[in-house]
Specification:
There is one protein chain. This protein is mainly beta and 167 residues long. The protein has one domain: Immunoglobulin-like. It has two helices and twelve strands; from the N terminus they run H-E-E-E-E-E-E-E-E-E-E-E-H-E. The strands form two sheets. It has a six-stranded mixed beta sheet, with no helix packed on it. Strands 3, 5, 6, 9, 11 and 12 form a six-stranded mixed beta sheet that branches. Strand 7 and strand 8 form a beta hairpin. The longest helix is centred in the first third of the chain and has 20 residues. The radius of gyration is 19 Å and the shape is globular. The chain binds copper (II) ion. Copper (II) ion binds next to loops. The site of copper (II) ion has 6 residues, from loops. This is EfeO-type cupredoxin-like domain-containing protein.
Length: 167
């Protein structure tokens, strides 16, 4: 009986054990961020340098929302418009939708005047999108995430969060 148990469940248990003990930077980290009025859920995201991140963005709201990550908010005509320092600069990002690769340009809004940095915008009800990238070690530290839709009003209404890269 014991032997039957291990034959049946041994590989499963071993697999779970290996999965739980995988060292940091091993497997990809799957993160999902839901966007709505006017928040990110969760609003704190922790990733590790060197680890592949699979970040899925879902718009669960009734308005268009976007994700930008960076530091130091810049203004355009007195409205928050993005970050002076863009987290994604120098990071190569792939995108998938429904498990199929897509062109990132589809997700970037028209280059808005005064807009800064890498941004993914989703209309309400639009199919979720997954961004795949590996965070280099020079990005270690704390970053902000934000949505600057509607002339920066989403940011002002609190659509902000923290993005923490651990070494
Ligand atoms: Cu928004």
């Amino acid at each position: 009986m014991k032997r039957v148990f291990w034959t049946l469940f041994g590989p499963l248990i071993l697999g779970l054990w290996l999965g739980a003990c995988a060292p940091g930077g091993g497997g990809p980290l799957a993160v999902q961020i839901a966007m709505s009025e006017y928040q990110f859920e969760p609003n704190v995201v922790r990733v590790k340098a060197g680890q592949e991140v699979r970040l899925t963005l879902v718009n669960k709201g009734k308005e268009a929302h976007e994700l930008m990550v960076g530091r130091n908010v810049v203004t355009h005509e007195g409205r928050p418009a993005g970050f002076a320092q863009d987290f994604f600069e120098g990071i190569s990002v792939r995108a998938e939708r429904g498990g199929k690769p897509i062109d990132l340009k589809e997700l970037m809004e028209e280059e808005e005047e005064g807009a800064h940095g890498f941004m993914v915008a989703l209309e309400p009800g639009e199919e979720p999108v997954t961004l795949i990238f590996t965070v280099p070690s020079d990005k270690v530290g704390e970053w902000e995430m934000g949505c600057f839709e509607n002339d920066g009003s989403h940011w002002q209404l609190g659509m902000q969060g923290k993005w923490i890269v651990q070494p």
